Amino acid sequence: MARQERLLRQLLILWVIVYSVSSTSQCGTDEFQFDTLCCQLCPSGTHLFKPCQENHGMSKCIPCESGFFMNHNNSESSCFRCSLCRDDQEEVAKCFQNADRECQCKQGTYCNSENCVERCLPCSSCPNNKVIRQCNATMDTLCDLSDSESGNPSDPESRMPCFHCVCLSESLKAVVTTAAIIIIIAAFIAASIALGFCVYKLRSRCRDPQPSTGPSAGSPVEESKSFQQVNEVMMV
Ligand SMILES: *[C@@H]1O[C@H](CO)[C@@H](O)[C@H](O)[C@H]1NC(C)=O
Ligand SMILES: *[C@@H]1O[C@H](CO)[C@@H](O)[C@H](O)[C@H]1NC(C)=O
To answer: Which long-range contacts (CB under 8 A, 24 or more apart) does 121-126 make?
Structure first.
């Protein structure tokens, strides 16, 4: 019995811990945590003045002052200051309590970086006025340059046939050069080997003339023969 009681007590403690953790950390999506309470967020166009006094209660919110905005549900202590348009931009939407001012490049200029961090650039004009898409505040003019140089207007690839030719001839040149170098080196090696072989042959021939000349002219046999003849003559 005592063991069961102890187990029950342990389970109860565990449940209390789990409940307290989950109840303090699990506020709704439109709520924020304030001490141990879940308070409702302030709607856009307002900011938090005083958090709620009871769990899931309404917070005290006050509207953004003039020149400030808040564009989402929040628990911020103040609204954001409205951004200003640069001198190369024009205002396209006023600043409201719930939305910032919107600016874009002035007519005839564009800026294609995200949030237009660079200055606005003048729109390009197309040769022969062949425009595919007019310039707007975020994109430059798109020109049709297809037949300005080559004779094929429909194929955009044909705009740079020379580029392809250059690429091809460059690679071809490299291949030919490499092949030429290899051939020259191979020829040099072959010539060296042949020359070395010839020199070796010549030297060995000078050192030992026996193999080519047999026992013919001026041989010791013949010499002794003639010597015998001389002896015979002298005897007579
Ligand atoms: C903002 O809060 C309101 C209620 O105050 C709710 O109806 C709305 O869906 C919330 N908006 C977002 C984006 O959570
Ligand atoms: C400019 O034109 C592009 C392509 O048509 C479009 O996606 C973009 O929204 C336009 N920008 C403006 C500010 O109208």
So the answer is: none
